[in-house]
Amino acid sequence: MKDTLKHRGMRNQLAQLLIEKGITDAKVLDAIRDIPRHLFMDSSFEGHAYQDKAFPIAANQTISQPYTVAFQTQLLELKPSMHVLEIGTGSGYQTAVLLKCRAKVFTIERQLELFKKTSLFFKKMGYRPKKTIFGDGYKGLPKDAPFDRIIVTAGAPEVPKALLSQLKVGGRLVIPVGFEEQIMTLYVRTTEKEFTKEEFGSFKFVPLLEDKN
Ligand code: SAH
């Protein structure tokens, strides 16, 4: 598979749709225009890659819907060189969006099959996260903490305490919280001991599961 002008045209249309749905962050929209989402998916879904929909990937997981990726990334309010922890590497598409926004990305995946597949894909494509880890994101990544930003791309029944504790003061955690449906939730660490919490409507994610598989 390769990237063509036709794909680029479809990405421009997708970015336009995301603007209509309320995405305003220019660097996020640039990432959507730039990143060949069709290459992150099985070839059987290639024709659908630029619809604003989630699709199946390996290990019964999904590549998030472009609007969701854009919305979560916009909420992060990224600045260049920030250290960002991502829980749920999956297809690597969200990782690529973070990298395009010039973040230093540490990404964790609990499914071995996906971890292996996506790690290879990053190499092939020249995407360079700081670390690609096979592990349980519930625990965060104490060795590399604290982080400027943390993004969780699976539905968490509750907010893992470890993630809150690994945020810098001034840092932001964006996490979908809930069982059947999730409420997109933003935590900002305002002081060593205090956090503010803001909620942003409901989304649907595959579940955040404990341990490795
Ligand atoms: N950002 C990804 C979303 C993939 S779906 C993309 O756009 O492709 C969510 C991913 O989170 C799945 O790959 C799932 O295996 C992973 N996941 C679920 N629980 C996890 C955990 N505790 N630690 C790390 N990854 C987890």
From TrEMBL:
Reactions catalysed: [protein]-L-isoaspartate + S-adenosyl-L-methionine = [protein]-L-isoaspartate alpha-methyl ester + S-adenosyl-L-homocysteine
Q: Does the keyword DNA-binding apply?
A: no
Q: Where is the signal peptide?
A: none
Q: What is its EC number?
A: 2.1.1.77
Please give the biological process terms from Gene Ontology that the record holds.
Answer: methylation
Q: What subcellular compartments does it reside in? A: Cytoplasm
Q: Which UniProt keywords apply?
A: Cytoplasm, Methyltransferase, S-adenosyl-L-methionine, Transferase
* Residue numbers annotated as active site: S64
Gene Ontology terms for molecular function:
protein-L-isoaspartate (D-aspartate) O-methyltransferase activity
List, alphabetically, the Pfam families matched: PCMT
Does the record carry Glycoprotein as a key word?
no
PANTHER family reported in the protein's UniProt record: PROTEIN-L-ISOASPARTATE O-METHYLTRANSFERASE (PTHR11579), PROTEIN-L-ISOASPARTATE(D-ASPARTATE) O-METHYLTRANSFERASE (PTHR11579:SF0)
Function, please? Catalyzes the methyl esterification of L-isoaspartyl residues in peptides and proteins that result from spontaneous decomposition of normal L-aspartyl and L-asparaginyl residues. It plays a role in the repair and/or degradation of damaged proteins.
Which NCBIfam families does the entry link to?
pimt, PRK00312.1
- What family is this protein classified in? Belongs to the methyltransferase superfamily. L-isoaspartyl/D-aspartyl protein methyltransferase family.
This chain belongs to the protein called Protein-L-isoaspartate O-methyltransferase
Please name the gene that encodes this protein: pcm
